[in-house]
Write the structure tokens for this entry.
Amino acid sequence: MSRRTRIPPSPLPQRDGIDAVRVRLPAGGPWATVGEHLVERLSGAGAGVVGRMLDAGLFVGADGRPVAPEAAFVPGMYVWFHRERAAEPRVPFEIEVVYRDEHIVVADKPHFLATVPRGSHVTETALARLRRDLDLPALGAAHRLDRLTAGLVLFTVRPGERGAYQALFRDRRVHKEYEAVAPHDPRLALPRTVCSRIVKERGVLAAREVEGEPNAVSRVELTGHRADGLARYRLVPATGQTHQLRVHMNALGVPILGDPLYPVVTGPWLPGDFRRPLQLLARRLEFTDPVTGTAHRFSSGRSLPAWDRPEEWAAGG
């Protein structure tokens, strides 16, 4: 029976709430030195970048000591480093902590702030901010909200308990309610449950509905409408496909206000442009804590300006 290799802890502290990158050298290969392998493996960093980092001692081994460029290649060796990151425009909205105990943190995320580091959004994410602000370097996300969606997100304090909380979402044992502002169509019969198959292809911005067995289920209810042609909706997803609520509302002919992807892709988001947020809010989160057994019910304190502050929305900010 093979024994699982124990991964040593990172010898580098977090930087701005972001973990160091861990690289494990392969079991074998043509490289004589660690430097040769890293230059080849991390070639996407750009010409000369890895070499300069090696010369500066920015790659370290499990003992925390810099790895010399000429150090002999050792199969299975672990190396850590921090990526060079481009400056990110600060999302000018604060993240609020709704609840905190020794097991979980429930945060009320603003629009435009990604949940976890991904792509060009790294330090300006809810996870990185909370790790820094709360001094909780081991904090992890139990699930995610789209960057453009505001509202409640559940984080876990202890890495060993994260799987138990993630299982709540995987096994559909969390009740989630969203609010959205979209056009009002008096011909649309509501409430209704929308079922379809949604696919999201890598590298393609928008998800789409296709033929086949449904994998996305959403309950759509009308909670109010106004003379200006707008309506407020309660959305209750039973599943968690990417962009599910946005796709389903668009399929009903009432796309959510401020959506840059549905019904048509209007172009990439420009850094620093925080006008016209997507009018979608994760309003409520309810679940029984798998560790403590406590029944939790949380509600977001945020609002949707197109509904609550229509003059501000009409002015474009």
Q: What stands out?
A: DSSP finds seven helices and 13 strands in the chain. The first helix runs from residue 34 to 41.
